[in-house]
Design goal:
Layout: H1 3-13, H2 16-22, H3 27-36, H4 41-50, H5 55-62, H6 66-75, H7 91-99, H8 104-111, H9 115-123
Amino acid sequence: MPGEEIVSLYRELASLDAFAKHLSLTRKTAIYKIRTAGVDVIEEIAVAWQNGLALRHLSAQHGPLPQTISKWIKSTGRQIKPRNSNPKYDQRRLQECFELGWTTNRIAKTMGLSWSTVQNARSA
């Protein structure tokens, strides 16, 4: 199958797994065939993620698990923050409360946090 036809079919199906299934290929072989035809599937997936598509969405579209999609994105040199890496509270304010000698219970109630969240922040 010529390169233009491979790329055209991949674009038409808009899915790595659909492409692989259509040609009765393994996913790895499908990636190789598309790459040799001039399209880097993994780079395209990474760009789509960088443009705001979620790992779950990309997983549903292309087939691999979100963990695999994440691994592919990282292989392109991009960094993915771990889930829940953005704190849900003001760490500076929490530290100030500790320095003022407030108890874990008082900080938790004042800041609307669980006792364990405050306690874990204290030991971090």
